[in-house]
Amino acid sequence: MPELPEVETYRRFIDETSLYQTITEVEVQDPKRQLQVDLDDFRKVLRGNQFTGTQRIGKQLFLLTAQGPIVTMHFGMTGDVGYYRDAADTPRFARAIFHFETGFKFAFIDSRKFGRLGLTQSVDTFRQQKKLGPDALTLSTEELTQGLARKKSAIKPLLLDQRIAPGVGNWIADEVLFQAQLEPERPAHTLQPTEIDRLATSIREVLEIAAEAIYRDFPSHYLIHAREWDEAPSSTITNAHLNCPRCQMLIQKKYVGGRATYFCPNCQM
Fold first, then answer.
1. Which PROSITE patterns match (predicted)?
2. Catalytic residue among 2, 5, 157, 184, which?
3. Domain 136-263 grouped into CATH 1.10.8.50
4. Active-site residue 245, yes or no?
5. Which residues contact 31 (CB under 8 A, 6 or more apart)?
């Protein structure tokens, strides 16, 4: 499933390839399933229009247009984007194609068809309707403090709450808590201001690195390298996969809020 770092990569890709080109046609392969508005209305809004910029809140992407209405994109389980010119290069699972006057095309790709396209009049309106909090990539200490105020639940599931930090997925929450040295089941209301500040900083840093790096190239002190063993064949398991990159203690796994959670019992006390 595309997480915030992947969607941020898509956003930057669109900015580099698909802006300020007049849209001449829009194809949607399965509008009843993947389009949240009427196909004729969708085409009417976009023909003759241009994408002029992008915004993102968590895993939700917005394509701004010259004439006002904004295209919303959610990538579901397998969503991706593409940009090409020749029909022979059309991505196999292109579900929506925006044809540009230049001859190039922008594609919304989705092999399993769980992604959704729609329209909204403003990002703020959409955010209020979906009850989304401030984007996790730019989340400030003040915003996180407000989101966690008086919450007595464990901090791990709260980080997955899109009303608090939209875009933080399961493995990212584990990484953030590891970098902030906080125990996943710690009640949020017990966090001190310095700890919330450390947590907010870790959220931003982890997501920024994730948006720039291939997972295997993450810094050596990241917990993600110790998570790989869970999916690896037993014959490939070594102590290096199981140990904390900081203290070398065995990484543990438990379920917090129903989600598999990896943590170091020594560093995250």
1. FPG_CAT (PS51068), ZF_FPG_2 (PS51066)
2. 2
3. yes
4. no
5. 39, 42
Average predicted confidence (pLDDT) for the chain: 92
Q: Which residues pair with 22 in a beta bridge?
A: 50
pTM recorded for the entire structure: 0.87
Q: Which residue has the tokens 């500040």?
A: 197
Q: How many helices (H) and strands (E) does the chain have?
A: 10, 10
H or E segment to which residue 11 belongs: helix 4-17
Return the structure tokens found at 91.
């991505």
Residue 91 amino acid letter: P
Residue 199 near residue 180, CB atoms below 8 Å: yes
Q: Note if 3 is an active site residue.
A: yes
Written as one letter, the residue type at 247 is C
H or E element, residue 205: helix 193-212
pLDDT tens digits along 176-225: 999 999 999 999 999 999 999 999 999 999 999 988 767 778 898 999 88
Q: Is 2 an annotated catalytic residue?
A: yes
CATH code for the part of the protein at 4-130: 3.20.190.10
Cβ atoms of 195 and 182 closer than 8 Å: yes
| Marked catalytic residue, from 143, 205, 259, 265 | 259
- Which DSSP letter does residue 106 get? E
For residue 8, give the amino acid letter.
Answer: E
Name the segment(s) of the chain with CATH classification 1.10.8.50.
Answer: 136-263
| Closest C-alpha to 153, from 194, 189, 198 | 189
What's the distance, CA 262 to chain centroid?
A: 20
* Portions of the chain given CATH number 3.20.190.10: 4-130
Residue 195 burial (CB count, 10 A)? 15
